[in-house]
Specification:
homodimer; DNA-binding; two-stranded antiparallel ribbon; globular
DNA sequence: ACTTTTTACTACTGTTTTAATAGTTATCCA
DNA sequence: TGGATAACTATTAAAACAGTAGTAAAAAGT
């Protein structure tokens, strides 16, 4: 890992870690879609290419936003799960959804709502709900 | 403007608009640094290349996050200002700063604090303060 | 047991985007 | 009026991304 950071700015540093076209969509699939495997990430509507998906998963694991493991009952599938560091991105994702709903919809007529995920209710309640939901998924997955 | 959106997802759509390496840093310079001109953006520590800066400014203007104008007393400088749509990115930027402070600092030893900008006080108060501050700058600039 | 399918990739090629620097035009200032 | 300043554009090289094909290992079917 040679100097990945452009500066000491917290915002620039975050972009240097997850400011690419795909990382946040993988995290979205995990946290809002409950996705856990390479196959599942591959089938998202944005159609990420396998080479890019592979490199992003390695990178996200490298910076400890996700973990990679196999479950004892299945040696074929790799299971990717968010770490706490990754789960703490929920407030950021929430703000993106809110801003997008208000300011991007006019540009993208195909845009769907995320009201089914509980957005547009009380903000901090929504965030905590999504986070505890995901933590429950992790617990269930690891048994 | 041919199909810029990969999908109907609000998160993907936001990334399709401002999910590159530089747009959010230009917006950061405007909102937290009070920067308004091409020259000022050029002198940020991350050293954006003029060609990229030029194309990003055009793009941000195209999607109505910023405006470009000349002031009557100076026909040389172009003045770039955030629109309301752009000012509404402050909550998102705030969450990035908070996440970064907590989760990126360990990876980037050069990272500086933004406590001088009022972060780490009450969140919604900070956001409103930054926003009204910027609106005041706009007012002062346009006279 | 053996064949097929599934999963998780890697490899390859072409295209697009980004980076770094040099150069151009118009305005301002002394 | 001549030099400095501001806002770019142009150019070339490097890196990232996109799309598709192919491979190895595990699992599932027969």
């Amino acid at each position: 890992m040679k100097n990945i950071f452009r500066s000491g700015c917290p915002i620039a540093s975050t972009l240097d870690l997850i400011g690419d076209k795909w990382s946040l969509l993988i995290i979205r699939d995990m946290i809002l879609g409950g996705k856990k495997t390479f196959k599942e990430f591959s089938t998202s509507p944005e159609k990420i290419a396998p080479g890019i998906l592979s490199s992003r998963l390695k990178w996200l694991e490298c910076i400890a936003l996700i973990t990679k493991r196999k479950l004892p009952e299945n040696q074929k599938e790799n299971i990717y799960l968010l770490t706490e560091k990754g789960i703490e991105l929920v407030p950021l994702i929430t703000e993106i959804v809110l801003w997008s709903d208000k300011n991007v919809r006019a540009l993208n007529s195909e845009m769907y709502s995320m009201s089914d995920k509980g957005f547009h209710a009380d903000k901090s309640a929504v965030i905590e709900h999504i986070q505890s939901n995901y933590r429950e998924l992790v617990r269930k997955t690891l048994g």
